Structures are given as C-alpha cells and as structure tokens.
C-alpha cells in the first residue's frame, strides 16, 4: 500500500502545475484563482507565496532562472525574485473568459500550453507551442479544455488530454523541429472514473494522471493499459509531479473549487498538497530554453 501524507494543509482554490526544483529540493505550484505561485521545502517545512496579478494556469522553470507561465492574458516570463513580468504573447485581448490552462516545457526546451474558456462549453481552444526564439505556433485546435501535458522519457512522444472530451491523445514529436504527427487515442477515458487533469511521466515511461472528481490518481503503461490506481482523501486531485531526493515521491495538488460547503465538510483536506511514496522514480523537470 502506498503511504499518503498531507504535506501542505491549506485550502487552495485550484492548486495546479506542480513542479519540482532539484537545485532547491523544493516543490512549486500555482493556485489558478488565488492567483499565486507557491513553494514548499520538505526538509524544513518552509512555505513561500508570490501573488500574481491575474489568473495563472501553469508554468515551467527557465534556464535563466525565471519561470515561463501561461496566464489569463497570455504567455509571460516572471522573475519571482524581483516580481518583474514580461508579456511575450497575447492570448485573447478583451475576452475575460479566456485564459491559459495546463502547460509545461518539453525535453527540447519548448513551452507547450493550452487555452480554454472558463465556461468550458466551446470546442474552440488551442494547444500552442512557444519556442526559445520567441515564436508561438498553434499546434492542435478544436479543444475544449486542454490538459494532461506530458512527454515520454526520450522526448519523442507528446501526451495531452481534453478534460471535457475525455480523451488522452499521443503524438509523435520531432525533436529537431517541434512538429507533431501521427495523432492517436492513448486512453479513451470513462468520465465516471474521473476526468483527465494534470499528468506526469515516470522513468519507466508510464503516464500518471490526476482523475479529478474521482478521489484518485492512476498510472498507465506506454501501451495505454491501466496498472495502478491510488486513492486520495479528496474528490478533486488536479495534477501530479515527482520530487524528493530520489524523485520517488509523487506530489499531488488538489482543489476546493467548485465544491459545495457540504462537500467540504466531508473532506477537510480538500485543496491541500499530498505526497505519495511510489517506488518508481520520475524524471527531472525540463526547463524552457534548453
């Protein structure tokens, strides 16, 4: 049985995009609606929070020490030390319903991020790729709520889901160009088992997914076979990543939004961050820029 610990007992609205920073041995994540970037250092229990000026859906670390983030208004570089924010791509000026959701850097230093509408009722959204040369390209269209971005250990496969269409797809990813091809269904998800949310890939190439609404995280082998399910004490796990000195700890962010007051009474740890000892190591989190 996998031991599950609550490591940050706080009521985040929508904790998302957990990232492990090896040089600090610290976990970072965002709260989309607070909005903020958060940090937890397991060895000391220290916490730090950086308020953001607008909704922030995801981020990755950069090779220059900043972070690159998918925000409400677009893609931006953020220097957490100074608070300076440099916008580099506008998403949908004048549309307060639009924002970026899930995203991360691939193993070749590019940043992938999906757009969404808060209403989550229109198949009009896009998965973008932002390259280190400053160009931004539309890669996948006709999405409702892009999610579940992850990459195989060798970087040759891109995974992503749509939390409203209930598919997880796999694509071949060209390392040299960043082009994707050969789209196929990796997992045909049953929404009764939770909608697909944030994801990660371990060193064995298996895909871990937070099953939001279903009190669990699940692991799928590279051929799409489910081989492990781990229950968590809250209904809405949102995303996961590997951390710890040996990268064998699965950290899971969760949400309180949009749970009712009655539901929150029954799950007092909703919104917290959990740690699960897995036994299989993950991989270092890629950084934008190389």
Mean pLDDT: 96
Q: What is the tally of beta strands? A: 24
Strand arrangement within the widest β-sheet reads: 1-24-23-22
Largest sheet: 4 strands, antiparallel
Instruction: Provide the structure class.
Output: mainly beta
Q: SSE order, as H and E?
A: EEEEEEEEEEEEEEEEEEEEEEEHE
The CATH architecture would be 6 Propeller
Q: How many separate structural domains? A: 1
Strand proportion: over 45%
CATH superfamily: TolB, C-terminal domain
Shape: globular
The residue ranges in which pLDDT falls below 50 over 5 or more consecutive positions are none
Oligomer: single chain
Q: CATH class, please?
A: Mainly Beta
Could you tell me the CATH topology label: Neuraminidase
Question: Could you tell me how far the N terminus lies from the C terminus, measured between alpha carbons in angstroms?
Answer: 38 Å
Q: How many helix segments?
A: 1
Radius of gyration: 17 Å
Structure summary:
This protein is mainly β.
Verbal overview:
This protein has a single domain (4-277), classed as 6 Propeller (Neuraminidase), CATH 2.120.10. It is globular and about 45 Å long. It is mainly beta and 290 residues long. The protein is 2% helix and 52% strand. The strands form six sheets. A four-stranded antiparallel sheet has the order 1-24-23-22, with no helix packed on it. It has a four-stranded antiparallel sheet with strand order 2-3-4-5, with no helix packed on it. Strands 6-7-8-9 form a four-stranded antiparallel sheet, with no helix packed on it. The protein contains one helix and 24 strands.
């Amino acid at each position: 049985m996998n031991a599950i610990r609550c490591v940050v007992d706080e009521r985040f609205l929508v904790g998302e995009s957990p990232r492990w920073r090896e040089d600090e041995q610290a976990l970072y994540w965002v709260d989309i609606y607070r909005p903020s970037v958060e940090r937890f250092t397991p060895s000391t229990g220290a916490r730090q929070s950086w308020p953001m000026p607008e909704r922030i859906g995801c981020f990755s670390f950069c090779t220059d020490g900043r972070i690159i983030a998918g925000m409400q208004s677009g893609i931006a570089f953020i220097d957490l030390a100074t608070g300076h924010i440099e916008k580099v791509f506008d998403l949908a000026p004048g549309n307060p319903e639009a924002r970026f959701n899930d995203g991360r850097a691939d193993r070749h230093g590019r940043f992938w991020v999906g757009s969404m509408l808060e209403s989550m009722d229109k198949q009009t959204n896009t998965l973008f790729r932002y390259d280190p040369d400053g160009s931004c390209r539309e890669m996948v269209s006709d999405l409702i709520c892009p999610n579940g971005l992850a990459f195989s250990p060798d970087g040759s496969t891109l995974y992503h889901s749509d939390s409203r269409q209930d598919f997880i797809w796999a694509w071949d990813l060209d390392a040299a160009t960043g082009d994707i091809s050969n789209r196929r269904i990796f997992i045909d998800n049953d929404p009764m088992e939770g909608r697909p949310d944030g994801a990660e890939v371990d060193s064995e190439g298996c895909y871990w997914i937070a099953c939001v609404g279903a009190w669990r995280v699940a692991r799928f082998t590279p051929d799409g076979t489910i081989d492990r399910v781990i229950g968590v004490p809250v209904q809405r796990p949102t995303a996961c990543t590997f951390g710890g000195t040996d990268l064998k700890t699965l950290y899971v962010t969760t949400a309180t939004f949009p749970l009712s007051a009655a539901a929150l009474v029954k799950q007092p740890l909703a919104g917290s961050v959990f740690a699960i000892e897995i036994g299989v190591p993950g991989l270092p989190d890629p950084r934008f820029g190389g």
